[in-house]
Design brief:
Helix content of chain A: 40-55%
Distance between the termini of chain A: 32 Å
Radius of gyration of chain A: 18 Å
Shape of chain A: globular
Largest sheet of chain A: 4 strands, antiparallel
Structural class of chain A: alpha+beta
Strand content of chain A: 15-25%
Order of helices and strands of chain A: HHHEEEEEHEEHHHEHHEEH
Oligomer: homodimer
Largest interface: A-B, 50 and 50 residues
Number of helices of chain A: 10
Chain lengths: 257, 257
DNA sequence: CGAACGCTTGATGGCCATCAATCTCTGTGG
DNA sequence: CCACAGAGATTGATGGCCATCAAGCGTTCG
């Protein structure tokens, strides 16, 4: 259905296009942090020495946490993941979506984890990092720690904005805001623009992210489509009227960087 | 109404009781970080050299952000604060409550801030910290940076849990979970236990935190009171049946440390 | 080719927002 | 000392948004 279902996925291709050749060897971690502070040559060298083991996981099967005291986290290099928690009554709340370049499971290594789960929405590739390697790099170049904190801070801002979205907006506005935010985040990594983007989520994923029922998600999608605002079909999100959609959602992307 | 309205507030007294005398001079920052990692003598000395200027703010008047590139943040030493964002339609969503020991405005210095506001719920005292002083301490003792990251990570976990609360629970469960979490956090700093705690919030604050109307908050409070679960009156929260309340909310405090 | 998954649409009802009115309590100023 | 204003709390009436139940469709895949 979605272009994300097949290899080779277009994400890596798009990300590499237009990037100066001498930077293409930077690790996912170095790429991530250089979006927050400008890294010197020495800092880049130090970062690229943090060993990041490439790994893959298949869609739909949750990433398992290896015991309570995890020492590894990931940077998502390709594909989409959702972070969620199951309620006692069986309902699910997705509280964040990870797209390429995002941290994955970082909280599990920084604190005794709560029972958060991660579902790859499509087949994914990650770079696995030992937290101690990272701390070692921080010791060598303390400024890297501040870049890392900025990255963590942005993640928290995204979750906070998501909370506001669910707490004080109706279903139409939630939907609009959700896709506008996703679009803005994907634009930063070069795989979206104001006309739209590939989106591998199902309507069930969307429902669990927005705190709605899947049935109502379907109605809202139809409503917004019939209003000529945006269309989500066949794994593609098309912004038909970006400005009106932004007005509806009250979308202000300033928290994203 | 609440004991928080009058000086000297009981918080500092309680926190200091039972703490060895030689530690009573630790800065709020040192106290905060030592709840995440055990700090050595030298680390404590380094931390206590981070200058923290005591300041006060009065209830109800928002903390103003001093320009876009803020270099200061606070650690709340006494009182309660709520962090919120106003929607275009005028409604308000509180996404976090700060209690003594919590960071305040940290995100404003780590990233270009979105328009988050802070309202002191009662008169507050804070320790003001220059971010560069902190980074200087990180350079001297890199392990402090990791403690700081753990603290940030917990803050994000709290916001995520709040999101889940609003997304997938009905009004009764939200209310129960909200006060159970607050109780657990306050217990960690010694100003609450399983029988209850002082709470200076109004029903309007609660409504904005839970994404409900103030009218409905009132009805839910009455409902839970009549069920013998908990009582919120005259600035005091009383857990009348802590276990049944926990069951109702599906409360699992593991994410709090 | 049947089962599973995802999408779509209709019907019904409940939770909670909204409007409105009243009450208490506190602080303030004439 | 009392009148008054304002904040906060409380309760009733009405209605809308969205959950839930139910049924059916198309596509994919073993």
């Amino acid at each position: 259905m979605s272009v994300f279902d097949h290899a080779p996925p277009p994400v890596m291709v798009d990300r590499l296009q237009g990037v100066p050749f001498h930077k293409q060897k930077d690790s996912p971690l170095a790429k991530k942090l250089s979006t927050f502070i400008k890294l010197s040559g020495r800092e880049l060298i130090e970062l690229n020495q943090v060993y990041d083991k490439p790994r893959s996981f298949i869609a739909g099967r949750d990433l398992v946490r290896q015991g309570k005291f995890n020492q590894k986290f990931y940077i998502l290099s390709d594909g989409w993941v959702c972070s969620y928690k199951i309620q006692p009554d069986g309902s699910r709340q997705i509280f964040d979506i990870q797209v390429p370049g995002d941290f994955l499971g970082l909280r599990n290594v920084l604190q005794r984890s709560s029972d958060v789960s991660f579902e790859p929405i499509v087949d994914i590739s990650v770079a696995e990092i030992q937290i101690d390697d990272l701390f070692f790099a921080f010791d060598a170049v303390p400024r890297l720690a501040t870049a890392f904190m900025r990255a963590m801070s942005r993640d928290e801002a995204v979750v906070a904005e998501h909370l506001i979205n669910i707490g004080r907006r109706n279903a139409d506005e939630r939907m609009a805001h959700f896709f506008l935010e996703l679009g803005a985040r994907l634009t930063l990594i070069g795989v979206a623009n104001k006309s739209g983007f590939d989106c591998p989520m199902t309507q069930y994923h969307i429902a669990d992210a927005l705190g709605l029922s899947a049935v109502h998600v379907n109605r809202v999608l139809r409503n917004l489509r019939e209003q000529g605002l945006f269309t989500f079909r066949n794994g593609y999100v098309a912004f038909n009227d970006y400005n009106r959609l932004s007005d509806l959602a009250g979308f202000d992307p300033s928290y994203l960087n």
